[in-house]
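Minutes, project check-in
Item: structure for the 258-residue chain
Input as provided by the requester:
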Amino acid sequence: MKPTNLEALQLSFKTQAPHFDSTKLHFTKQEYLEDTIRKTAPEKTDIILDVAAGTCICGRSLAPHAGHVVCLDATPAMLEVGKQESENHEIRNITFVKGYAEDLPFLDRSFDIVISRLAFHHFTNVDSCFSEMARVLKPGGKLIMIDMTMNDESLRDEVDRIERLRDASHVRDLTLSEMRDLYVRNQLTLPYQEQTDLAVSLESWMELTKTPEASRIEIRKLMKDHLNKKYATGFSPYLVDNEIYFNQHWVFNLGRKE
């Protein structure tokens, strides 16, 4: 089953692929990757699946600590970048697979760890993607979902609207309770859920997706109106040296298949 927004996904991430691993971006900074490794705590024998992996920067970071990593993504251009970077850094225990989170091409109980990082807000069928991740996870294995949530749930529709102005492949941010419910419905425990706020430059955020200029102008206006208390965006923007920033609210969920 292909995602219904496949065309928008592939167009967006083909555009992002050349710069997706830039160290200037907040979500590729080494400190955050090291934090993910520490919390995931893979063992040298673990077989890991990275779902909607993009350039597999998360999977590539985990690979030296695991037995093997499989990176799955729907966009070939992203996987090509990840494959080339793996070759550049001589990471050999890694495989790249084109596929869809909604229909994982793997047998039941195949992986010790299944992880998805900053992808669920792009999924049109969240339940299907999560249940597939749970299906291919071994008993006793870890299912890790890292994604964004919103600070003010009353403004979630506006947050999603602005996100789509910036990137048409965005679908919907989940709430903390919606994330917890995914684990419960799939008979997984959720012993660990942590939210971390990360500062994001508005201009860098729009530049990554090559947001059309008309949309950039509209987004800037909304953010400025919010700063002037004329409008509520749900982003809570603020100024740093006269540049607009906002905080993204990342959630690290670690569940177990008992």
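Outcome recorded: Strands lie at 47-51, 68-73, 94-98, 111-117, 137-149, 189-201, 238-240, 243-256.
No further action items on this chain.
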